[in-house]
Amino acid sequence: MNIGSADLPKLRSSVLLALLGLATGAAIVYASLQVRESAERARVSATMQRDESDRRLRQVRDEESEIKQKSRLFNQLQQRGIIGEEQRLDWVELLKEVRDRRRLLDLRYDISPQRQIEGGKPGEFAFYASAMRVQLKLLHEEDLVRLLADLRDQAKALIRVNRCRVERLPAGADERSSGRANLQADCELDWLTARETPAK
To answer: Which fold has domain 88-196?
Structure first.
C-alpha cells in the first residue's frame, strides 16, 4: 500500500489524534504516579503520627501508674504517722505498752532533740531523725528482737537501729533461781519522720 500526497492531510489528523492520545495517556500515568506518591507520603505521615500518639499515650499511662503508686505509698506512710510532725507521746506510750506486754525488765530510754537529715528545699519533703537510747535487761536475746520488731511494726515513725550492744550480767545464784535478767542491752535507734518544708 502506497501513501500518496493526497493521503497526507487525512493521515495528519490521525497522527495528531494518536499523538494526543499518547500525550493524554502519559499525563494520566504521570498523574497516577503523583497521586500514588502523595498517598504513600500521607500514609507514612499518618503512621508516624499514630506511632507518636501511641508513644505519648503509653508515656501518659506510665506516668499515671507511677503517680497512683506513689500516691498509695504516700497515703500508707501518712496513715502510719511517718509523714507529719513527730509524735513523741505516742512513741513513749508504745514503749510502755510493749514493755508491759512483753514483760520486759527495767526498760529505760532517752530521746535526743530532732535533727534534719535530708531535704529542706521549700515545697519538698525533708527527713528528720530523733535519736533514742534504749537500755533494758533481758532474760534472753529474743526479748530484744521482739521489742525491735514491735517498734518497727507499730511505731508512728520508721525505726532505724544504729547499734545494739548486748552483755551478760554477772549473775548470782539467787538471781538465776528467781528468773532474773541474764543480759543487758544498750541500743541506739533513730525514729525517722518526714514532712514538707514550709516556704520561707
So the answer is: Alpha-Beta Plaits (3.30.70)
